[in-house]
Amino acid sequence: MKKDVLIYDTTLRDGEQGEFVAYSLEDKVRIALRLDEFGVDYIEGGWPGSNPKAMHFFARMKTEKLKNARLAAFGSTRRKNVKASEDSQILTLIEAETPVVTIFGKTWDLHVREALRVSEQENLDMIGDSVSYLKSRGREVVYDAEHFFDGFKANPEYALKTLQAAADAGASCLCLCDTNGGTMPTEIPAILARVKAAVKTSIGIHTHNDAGMGVANTIVAVNEGAVHVQGTMNGYGERCGNADLIQVIPNLELKYRKRCLPDGKLGELTSLSHFIAEVANISPDPRQPYVGQTVFAHKGGIHVSAVRRNPITYEHIPPETVGNVRRVLVSELSGQSNVHSKSEELGIDLSTASDETKGVLKQIKEMESRGYQFEGAEASFELLLKKALGKHRSFFELKGFRVSTSKHGEEPCGAEAVVRLAVKGEDRHCVADGDGPVNALDRALRKALVEDYPELKQVRLTDFKVRVLNARSGTAAMVRVLIESSDGDKTWTTVGVSENIIEACWAALVDSIDYQLLRVEEEGAGSKPKTSKKSKSAV
Fold first, then answer.
1. Rounded to 5 degrees, what angle do the CA atoms 42, 270, 519 make?
2. What is the DSSP string of 52-101?
3. Confidence band (pLDDT; 50, 70, 90) for 465?
4. Helices and strands per DSSP (H, E), number in the chain
5. What DSSP character marks residue 207?
6. How far is CA 377 from the centre of its chain?
7. Band of the pLDDT at 470, cuts 50, 70, 90?
8. First-residue to last-residue Cα distance in the chain
9. CA-based diameter of the chain, in Å?
């Protein structure tokens, strides 16, 4: 399959230079294999001479067989006054034994004078000698023209000479780098025209996002003839990051009809983005174009009504094209279309329940006026809907609870919760300690229920968020609590609101338990009824 654009991924090298981004050796191997499976053409693994982990990575990758991508080692041109064949950094690139080597050289005469402190001719010799030697050792050489756009604007004749030096020495691609990220898209066409007139070697583009133009500059460069695109997944990289390949790839494939992935791989874009974020231990950006959680989320009632009739009214592509999903949010801005659409998504038929729909919508708006938010707590919304339709039952009744905290000397604060419930006609009185009041309350609640509902053994609280809604009220402010729970297979989120944070937590915890028990019961996997009627107490 012939591609129009080759994708060169530098997530493992340039991406790792970003603040808060760090990969272990195993992380780098996992990412490399996933990128290869996805179908990128080049994977830049790092700079072998910069740190031991990079060398270990290339040694490890010798045992892995890539199916689609070619592995690249990254480095610089040789040092001044040293032959490339004798330069230790160049020799380290050879030792990495990658089929591709990418080296960067100075294009901007300012850097030649002040950073390298060599003559312009010596810099040209360093470029040519480095590329030529690497070619003689059987490597495909990609030449990264560092600071190309700034260098061209300062001294176009010399910038083009540096490209010609690399081309004459045998570089397979001349990659134009906007290293400082300050170039504007309107500048690129004229500059690319000059480059194409001066050299016949394939042109690549490598942009940074310091002016927010990384993706735009990449797309414009491809439209002007670049056939090699460098970038990182999720835009990770130094300062403001690199061009985000998660945005670049679908723009090229869907908007410009330029093939850059194997057939069927575009549908894996969302899962790839989230995989990279997970390995990097960075929360995915919910507003990241194409793959973010909110990208195909509809909240306004008029929008939802239109999307239900024809999705293209408010969506520029079908979400499944990139592996994303359409979501309908339910809030005080919602209309009946939101409730109907959300109920269909949950498998609840509201086609003959117009009065119930109006009632649920009214209740949602009233609750959200008090601070509830269901767009991020879909499990609580599903329970609300089922209660309105009479499809919900209570699994326990609260008799009361008490939560206390204590501190002794320099020891961390401790918490204890006491919960009294009625479960299947029996009293339950349980006490539990916790790292904090919410943790203690969660433990006590599940401790009181787990004997009757053993499926709760698998449930864990995985995330907990508190937001103050009216901060000017000080300690009497309303708070909204969002709790995310998981049974190891599915994850759901519930919400509670109150002026008392513990009461808000309790409401969210109860919804979480109710949601799981109702789901298990509907799937026909509820626990067996107990026969004993004795009151039980656990301490």
1. 145
2. HHHHHHHHHHTTS--SS-EEEEEEEPPPTTS-GGG-HHHHHHHHTT-SEE
3. confident
4. 17, 17
5. E
6. 20
7. low
8. 67
9. 94
Got the DSSP string for 326-395?
Answer: -EE--STT--HHHHHHHHHHTT---TT-HHHHHHHHHHHHHHHHTT---TT-HHHHHHHHHHHTT----S
Structural domains present in the chain: 6-262 (3.20.20.70), 297-388 (no CATH), 397-538 (3.30.160.270)
395: CB partners within 8 A, 6+ apart: 423, 449, 453, 513, 514, 517, 518
Q: Which residue has the tokens 């008799």?
A: 399
Q: How far apart are CA 86 and CA 88, in angstroms?
A: 6
* Res 310: pLDDT: 85
Lookup result for tokens 């290293």: 179
Q: What tokens does 346 get? A: 């949950």
Judged by DSSP in three states, 522 sits in: helix
Among 438, 308, 260, 465, smallest CA distance to 373 is for 465
* 494/515 Cα distance (integer angstroms): 9
CA atoms within 13 A of residue 530's CA, in its CB half-sphere: 16
pLDDT above 50 for 532:
no
Hey, what are 216's tokens?
């735009």
Instruction: Round the average pLDDT of the chain to a whole number and report it.
Output: 87
Give the least confident one: 209-218, 272-281, 335-344, 502-511. 335-344
Burial of 366 (0-12, 13-18, 19+ CB in 10 A): exposed
